[in-house]
Amino acid sequence: MNAVADAAAASAALQPDRLKLTEIFLSLQGEARDAGWPTVFVRLTGCPLRCQYCDTAYAFHGGQWWEIDAILAEVAAHGARHVCVTGGEPLAQKRCLQLLGKLCDAGYEVSLETSGAIDVAGVDARVSRVLDIKTPGSAEVERNLWDNLALLTPRDQVKFVICSRADFDWAKGIVAEHRLHEVCDVLFSPSATQVPARELADWIVAEKLPVRFQMQLHKFLWNDEPGR
Question: What are the binding positions for [4Fe-4S] cluster in this chain (predicted)?
Fold first, then answer.
């Protein structure tokens, strides 16, 4: 039995480190601090959440296995300085941490788009973590891992997708309670089909909130076309 176990362990050790990817593509970053920059997007497959406004449900299943070195080679071929690792929920695959570290080692400006439902403590400190705090309107508010907030640094960003006035008031309370605006950039985005962008902008101005209003640039340019 020990010989079988040893053989299995040796075989596993020889296997290349891999991640399941839905797509890798070059586009413009459509949101957050790096909006507008040419960016290589590495979209990992799979997500344990089911937010009601999700626009990347095509990444929940399927995908192809890529060796991490092959991912790095494909990223390099696009010739951009910015790389965004996204999903799905990229941290649902444990080797995502290894990919993030190698991208940083290669000199890229790296951001990670994560749901905030998984511990971010192991993410390389050079990465800008874009933490999506789930509002009640997302239908996944109970999945928020609140311990993540204590790990935030000025390199990081926090995003709220606002689905209603109730969501806005809830998010305003979270920002104030945790003083998030004193730690990192705080982003408020309108849920595309539920809150008119101008309405959210008016709420932010009226309340004098220390947050950044944002819209998804890529949706204006390419709608929800995969790979754009």
Answer: 47, 51, 54
Do the domain assignments include residue 73?
yes
pLDDT tens, residue by residue, 94-135:
999 999 999 999 999 999 999 999 999 999 999 999 999 999
Range of the domain at 48: 12-222
Rounded distance, CA 7 to CA 117, Å? 36
Q: Does residue 3 form part of some domain?
A: no
Coil vs helix vs strand at 217: helix
122 is in an annotated binding site: no
Query: Cα dist. 200→19, 68, 140, 213 in Å?
Result: 37, 40, 21, 8
The answer to whether the annotation marks 47 as part of a ligand binding site is yes
Specify the CATH number for the domain of residue 58: 3.20.20.70
- What average pLDDT does range 171-178 have in this prediction? 98
Q: Which residue has the tokens 């947050």?
A: 211
Q: How far is CA 75 from the centre of its chain?
A: 17
Residue 90 tokens read as: 């990229």
Q: Would the annotation count 69 as a binding residue?
A: no
Q: Is 53 annotated as a binding residue?
A: yes
Whether the pLDDT of residue 58 is over 50: the answer is yes
- Whether residue 54 is annotated as binding a ligand: the answer is yes
For 139-169, how does the pLDDT look when each residue is reduced to its tens digit (9 = 90+)? 999 999 999 999 999 999 999 999 999 999 9
CB atoms within 10 A of CB 74: 15
